[in-house]
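Re: [ENG-882] Designed sequences occasionally contain unexpected residues at chain ends

Forwarding the minimal case from QA. Structure tokens:
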């Protein structure tokens, strides 16, 4: 009897516990349903928008849903043009291609002016230095306000007109330092551990980067930092000037040359290689090939050495690759950057533009360059004592010295 009574008590206790648990579960379920209905009614538009969006991949429809939410809930003022521009930039950035970019209507003319080699500003070439997250001066343009003021290669731009910028803000900085001729701009730079501020007056800058001189042993030396409109003609004129001074060999310095207009590089190659030689293969997304060939008899028939480094890119690699493959030049230095894709700039009806990667290029031997680079015939590193590869003194320039030695 005692055992049976204990069993009954335990069973009764178990039923009570289960009843409590069941009531708690039902209460939770009812509360959850009620809260769901509350939020569904309160934010019904949100739920319907997301439901529609998830089943519709059309970008215009998706953006319209976001627009509906913004119009209903956003507290601040809405600038439709800025929203549209931001949406386009974000869409293009989704390609994750560092060379494809949207160019606003306001920036389009400046971009074209830069490409052609004419603009109003302070006269500097800039690159992104991602290691320190700053914009770095690649080089000041000769006789520009920047050069006259003392801005040097390797200087890091901290701020323009008291607004600080990072490496990702290069487009904004470029626009900021441009302006009307005769107006002023303040540029703050970091040089080593020292901060310097320059007050500069904007001028019309005509880019003419082709420089040349005669070295010992009748060796000609030509250097330029980009391929702008007219660079090939300037190169030809400079070579003819050196030729009159009795040179019998040539060094073409493409170190820190980031490229530019492809046709300018092909024109320079045309001065050197035999007529009808393949200079370049351009391959589109459908693997269609366009072959670029030299069209004229060569006017330069001397031994040539090309200097390269890790900043030799794009059109510079086209020129170096063509002359190397065709046996018209030896390359000295270190492996190039490896930008083996070509962009074209499309002008859109609203005045904006799209610089888009449309083709890859291959050298005459069909060598792939993109993300690989061109390996020199003779690899020569600069000494460890060189702190700034953008400003190497001739006595420390082992790459130039090796080229001179090879041409003696």
């Amino acid at each position: 009897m005692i055992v049976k009574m204990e069993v009954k008590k335990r069973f009764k206790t178990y039923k009570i516990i289960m009843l409590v648990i069941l009531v708690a579960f039902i209460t939770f379920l009812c509360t959850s349903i009620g809260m769901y209905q509350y939020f569904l009614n309160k934010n019904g538009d949100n739920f319907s928008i997301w439901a529609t969006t998830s089943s519709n991949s059309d970008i215009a429809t998706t953006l319209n849903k976001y627009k509906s939410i913004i119009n209903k809930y956003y507290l601040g003022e809405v600038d439709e043009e800025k929203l549209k521009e931001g949406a386009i930039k974000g869409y293009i950035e989704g390609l994750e291609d560092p060379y494809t970019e949207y160019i606003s209507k306001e920036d389009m003319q400046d971009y074209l002016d830069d490409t052609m080699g004419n603009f109003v500003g302070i006269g500097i070439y800039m690159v992104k230095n991602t290691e320190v997250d700053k914009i770095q001066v690649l080089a000041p343009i000769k006789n520009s306000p920047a050069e006259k003021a003392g801005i040097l290669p390797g200087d890091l731009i901290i701020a323009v007109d008291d607004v600080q910028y990072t490496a990702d803000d290069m487009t904004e900085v470029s626009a900021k330092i441009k302006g009307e001729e005769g107006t002023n701009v303040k540029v703050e730079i970091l040089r080593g551990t020292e901060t310097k501020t320059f007050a500069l007056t904007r001028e019309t800058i005509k880019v003419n980067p082709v420089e040349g001189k005669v070295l010992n042993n009748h060796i000609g030396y030509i250097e330029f930092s980009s391929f702008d409109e007219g660079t090939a003609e300037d190169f030809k004129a400079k070579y003819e000037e050196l030729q009159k001074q009795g040179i019998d060999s040539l060094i073409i310095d493409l170190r820190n040359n980031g490229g530019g207009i492809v046709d300018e590089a092909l024109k320079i190659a045309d001065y050197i290689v035999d007529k009808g030689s393949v200079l370049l293969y351009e391959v589109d997304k459908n693997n269609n090939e366009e072959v670029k060939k030299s069209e004229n008899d060569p006017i330069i028939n001397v031994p040539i050495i090309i200097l390269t480094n890790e900043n030799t890119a794009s059109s510079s690699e086209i020129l170096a690759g063509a002359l190397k493959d065709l046996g018209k030049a030896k390359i000295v230095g270190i492996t190039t950057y490896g930008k083996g894709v070509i962009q074209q700039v499309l002008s859109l009806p609203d005045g904006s533009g799209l610089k888009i990667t449309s083709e890859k290029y291959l050298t005459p031997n069909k060598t792939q360059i993109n993300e690989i680079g061109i390996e020199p015939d003779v690899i020569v590193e600069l000494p460890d004592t060189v702190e700034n590869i953008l400003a190497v003194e001739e006595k420390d320039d082992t790459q130039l010295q090796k080229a001179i030695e090879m041409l003696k």
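QA comment: On inspection the terminal residues look reasonable. Residues 118-206 form a domain with the Pdz3 Domain fold (CATH 2.30.42.10). Proposing we downgrade this to a documentation issue.
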